[in-house]
Specification:
Strand order of the largest sheet: 1-2-3-6-5-4
Largest sheet: 6 strands, antiparallel, barrel
Helix content: under 10%
Radius of gyration: 15 Å
Structural class: mainly beta
């Protein structure tokens, strides 16, 4: 059932020069509506085998997803581990927690 009652911040990470001419990352978040989907056992264990913790699976409208690799969902900063088309109108995003620079 589609309710679109939740939101996620899709974060585009861009780089700008600071005063000392160093490239620094700058977050550009956009808030969009989403549906939370259940995470199956297969996806959960596949993530665990890869050393990640599957946090959530969400669905957003395809026209709103621009390839962002980082998002904020449920108050946590997460990595988009997999984006998969779900029909012509939707994209399913598998979100994982990960420590280190990938999520920065």
């Amino acid at each position: 059932m589609s309710r679109w009652d939740r939101t996620v911040e899709l974060v585009a990470v861009e780089y700008e020069q600071d005063a000392e001419r160093r490239q620094v990352p700058v977050d550009r978040p956009r808030r969009v509506f989403c549906n939370e989907l259940s995470v199956g056992a297969e996806a959960y264990y596949a993530a665990a085998q890869a050393g990640h913790a599957m946090a959530a699976r969400i669905e957003v409208r395809a026209c709103e997803y621009r390839g962002e690799r980082v998002c904020v969902y449920g108050g946590r900063r997460l990595v988009v581990a997999r984006a998969q088309g779900s029909g012509a109108d939707y994209v399913r995003l598998d979100l994982e927690e990960e420590v280190g620079e990938r999520c920065q």
